[in-house]
Amino acid sequence: MAEIHHLAHGWVTPTVSYVLSVLGSLLGLTCAVRFRTANSRGARNFWLILAAVAIGGTGIWTMHFVAMLGFDVVGSPIRYDVGLTAASALLAVVAVGIGLAIALNGTAAQQLRIIGGGVLAGLGVAGMHYTGMAAMRLDGTIDYSATRVGMSVGIAVVAAAVALWLAVTVRKPLAILAAALIMGVAVNGMHFTGMSAMSVRLEQPVTALNGATASQLLLPIGLAVVFGVLGLVYALMAAPTEEDRAGLAYLAARQEVDDVPAPAPARPTFGGVPQQRSAPAPAPQPQRPMPPAARQAPPQQRQPQRPPQQQQVGSAPSLGERLGSLQREQAQAAAQARADGDEETRRLGGQPAPRRMPNPDSSWTFRDRAEK
Predict the structure, then answer these.
(1) Degrees to nearest 5, angle at CA 366 with 365 and 370
(2) Are both 91 and 220 inside the same structural domain?
(3) Which of 179, 207, 282, 293 matches a 20 to 30 Å C-alpha distance to 43?
(4) Cβ neighbours of residue 110 under 8 Å, at least 6 residues apart?
């Protein structure tokens, strides 16, 4: 039997593989949370695919490949079949995606769907592991212990079921982180249990080994993992969360309320009668500017205007004087007419008409003044 080393590079490879499994599980569980809060079928399918890629691709298959970098068989080089290696990656993503679809879609018989999805996903993950082992080429024959193979398959099924249960239940960031740490332990435990089930019997090489070395696959796989993780992180950061959608709905509701015109304010009522608004005050009339001579002359040089009583002698009569003379003429004419009428009455033998005297209730006319 050949001597096998699973930690050929020390604790570097298992540490990196554990970090990758935790990172993939963390991203996958976060995508599962987004799946549960999505409001359309297209969005749910989108998050389901991302969760399958994160858990199956980054959390399981990439961890498996990095851990294989520390595998070494003394006395034989190791090569990898590129086709089978790619098929093992695809198998991991598809198996996890089917398990997530069974567990996440629907609410009836939740526990049964988690168990059924866990069994299918676990068998798919175990198939991924042994497909990756079958892609390995070396100068010898690989044998497996049935007991440890069964243990690795059982661990894969249990780990997948736990992962699906966490994908259905966890929501809080701390709970997701704790679940990712547990899933990292389960995935690494399944891998190293399966690796411990193998043994190698060396044989004389007949032809050169075909395939790519681990270092040749490391660069393209590493770039794929880096860009895949960055894409997942960007998708999670760019997509709106449930809180974001609630905030947008609140802002839209506020905008609709602001667009509705406010009703006119009611007039205040006093005693049940609306208060009548007073007419607006008239605008102030502009003041007539003063003549330039009056503006420029000092106050002491301005001549005061004479009152109407102090008019110079020989000047034209004022309007009041002319009105008074006219009233006197009318009174004299009226008195003369009454005297003539009395005389005519006495001549005819009658009595003169009584003189009309003013009273407080009657209006005071110019004729009454004349008669008085």
Answers:
(1) 120
(2) yes
(3) 179
(4) 103, 168
Residues 65/177/47/167 CA torsion (nearest 10 deg): 100
Strands (E), 102-250: 136-137, 140-144, 198-202
In degrees and rounded to multiples of 5, residue 212 shows phi and psi of -105, 150
- Closest Cα partner for 163 from 201, 221, 119, 194? 119
Give the 3-state secondary structure of residue 274: strand
The residue among 138 and 261 whose pLDDT is bigger is: 138
Choose the final residue of a domain: 194, 216, 239: 239
- Give CB contacts under 8 A, 24+ apart, made by 337-341: 338/371
C-beta separation of 59 from 176 below 8 A = no
- Containing domain of residue 344, as a range? 323-372
pLDDT at 168 over 80: yes
- pLDDT category of residue 49 using cuts at 50, 70 and 90: very high
Please give the C-alpha separations between residue 116 and each of 91, 99, 102, 161, in angstroms, as whole numbers.
Answer: 18, 8, 8, 8
The string of DSSP letters for 144-169 reads: E-HHHHHHHHHHHHHHHHHHHHHHHH
Residue 299 lies inside a defined structural domain of this protein: no
Q: Using CA atoms, how far apart are residues 58 and 20, in angstroms rounded to an integer?
A: 6
**This prediction's pTM:** 0.63
Give the three-state DSSP class for 231.
helix
Tell me the CA distances in angstroms from 11 to 23, 24, 115, one per residue in order.
18, 20, 34
For position 269, what pLDDT does the model report?
A: 52
51-65 pLDDT, tens digit per residue, is 999 999 988 999 888
Average the pLDDT over 248-261 and give the result: 70
Structural domain count of the chain = 2
Task: Tell me the C-alpha distance between 187 and 161, whole Å.
Answer: 12
Q: For residue range 197-239, what is the model confidence (pLDDT) as tens digits? A: 888 888 887 777 888 888 888 888 889 888 988 988 888 888 7
Structure tokens at 314: 């020989």
**Which one of 239, 272, 296 terminates a domain?**
239
Helices H, strands E: what count in the chain? 12, 8
Identify the helix (H) or strand (E) that includes residue 243. Answer: helix 242-259
Mark whether 24 and 143 lie in a shared domain: yes
Residue 363 is assigned to a structural domain of this protein: yes
